[in-house]
Amino acid sequence: MVLTKRGLVLGATALVLTTVAVTGAGLHFSQSQAFFRESPKELVDKVWQIINGDYVDATFNQVNWRAVREDYLARNYSSPEDAYSAIQEMLEQLDDPYTRFMDPEEFKNMQIDTSGELTGVGIQIAKDEETDRLIVISPIEDSPAFDMGVLAKDIIMAIDGQDTLGMDVNEAVQLIRGEEGTTVTLTLKRGDEEIDYPITRARIEIHPVRARVQQTDLGPIGYIRLNQFNANAAKEMRDTVRDFENQDVEGYILDLRSNPGGLLYASIEIARIWLDEGTIVSTVDRRGEVDRQRATNSALTDRPLVVLVDGGSASASEILSGALQDNDRAVLVGTSTFGKGLVQSVRSLGDGSGLAVTIAKYLTPNGRDINEAGIPPDVELELTEDQRKDLQTNNSMIGTLDDPQFSKALEVLTEEITAQSGLQVEAVPQ
To answer: Which pLDDT value is given to residue 393?
Structure first.
């Protein structure tokens, strides 16, 4: 099954709570399930075929991929579990934390209802290849992890006392997830300090867009915080911008801090809300083929725009930020973004299991490959450790004048509005 662009995953992918919407991947596989139960070797070969046809690296990490197939098909598999272990072992040779196999339970967990209600602790994680540890990409706002003070780029040293060195992301997900009301203890390393965080799992309601109007001496400013790029994000963004345009705001601050990404099409549709023309993103597969997405003369506003970014702004956030920066549509304020420039396609396999495959990398409109490098802001402002903790322990401060990066963004936006209007007025926020 080949997924459409709506099924392409751009988030940090190794997620405890993921925003993936798998197009066409239903949950009814009765005939195929029976087939793969009887012939688990066929499942191994199916995964090999998908990697062989679609994987972004034509050298397969300098591995003789055909020899790998001969090796694994020469083995006997007495159960689906044997096949699952072999598949995971086979994929490890690619040395790609984003290409991964999910057994039926893991895949079911991945196919989360995009209505916005999830159960978990609310962190998004990936494998840090250098340390062989799990790293927090970002906590989901208003989640138990967020409320406990978990921060982006915290290193997970242990889960309920179990050392995570070398631990697979899927194994970590299974240990962290659990029933609502139960507790999991994460041992996190931040700098030189290790801290135990006992976190109670809960039902989490996620609203991708939050917005309000900030009054200034120049007039109202629209503040929009986008938490993730799920299936509803573009519509909510469009409705919000239309509402603010009706209120005749003078400009916008778009907050993408700690936004780990999500769906490719959502980032493209949101870029089109702000851009009337120009390239948004290019995706390049292993054959060098380029799929170039452009603006469609459908922008809802041309008012000045400032975008807030930080180290937790990943993937789809970086596509949007890069598009707005390269097209000179917005000024980026904050710190460099996470640096994930890879695209995954999620496939359902016949027995209810699933496969996420890195199929392409993406480039910003100016041709920048930001993988592992991130996007630098136009105006850099790093929060101190105390400021970061204050914002997390008092999340009502986010996007207010008590938020130093927001205050800086408001200052920059004021300058942009003044320059665009030709006014010589010093605007002080009210």
So the answer is: 67
Range 123-205 has CATH code 2.30.42.10: yes
Helix count and strand count (H, E) for the chain: 12, 20
φ/ψ of 273, rounded to 5, equals -70, -30
Give this prediction's pTM. 0.73
Instruction: Spell out the alpha helix ranges (H) of 55-203.
Output: 65-73, 80-92, 104-110, 144-148, 169-176
Other C-beta atoms lying within 10 Å of the C-beta of residue 41: 17
Q: Where are the alpha helices (DSSP H) in 12-127?
A: 30-38, 40-54, 65-73, 80-92, 104-110
Q: What is the pLDDT of residues 76-123, one digit of tens each?
A: 999 999 999 999 999 999 999 889 999 888 787 666 533 445 678 988
**Alpha carbons 64 and 87: distance in angstroms, whole number:** 16
Phi and psi, residue 14, nearest 5° = -85, 75
Closest C-alpha to 430, from 226, 147, 271, 220: 220
Q: Judge whether residue 6 has pLDDT over 50.
A: no
For residue 394, what pLDDT is reported? 74
Per-domain residue ranges of the chain: 5-109, 123-205, 209-343+356-417
Residue 34 to residue 5: CA distance in whole angstroms: 30
Taking the C-alpha atoms of residue 71 and residue 67, their distance in angstroms, rounded to an integer, is 6
Above 70 in pLDDT, residue 287?
A: yes
Nearest Cα residue to 331 out of 280, 274, 279: 274
Decide: helix, strand or coil at residue 94: coil
Does residue 306 contact residue 274 with C-beta atoms inside 8 Å? no
Task: Report which DSSP code applies to 359.
Answer: E
Rg (CA), the chain: 22
SS3 14: coil
CATH superfamily of 209-343+356-417: 2-enoyl-CoA Hydratase; Chain A, domain 1 (3.90.226.10)
User: CA 74, 79, 84 angle in degrees (round to 5)?
Assistant: 75
d(CA 272, CA 320): 10
Pick from 189, 199, 99: which is nearest to 153 by CA? 189
Which residues participate in catalysis according to the annotation? Answer: 315, 326, 340
The CATH number that domain 5-109 falls under is 3.30.750.44
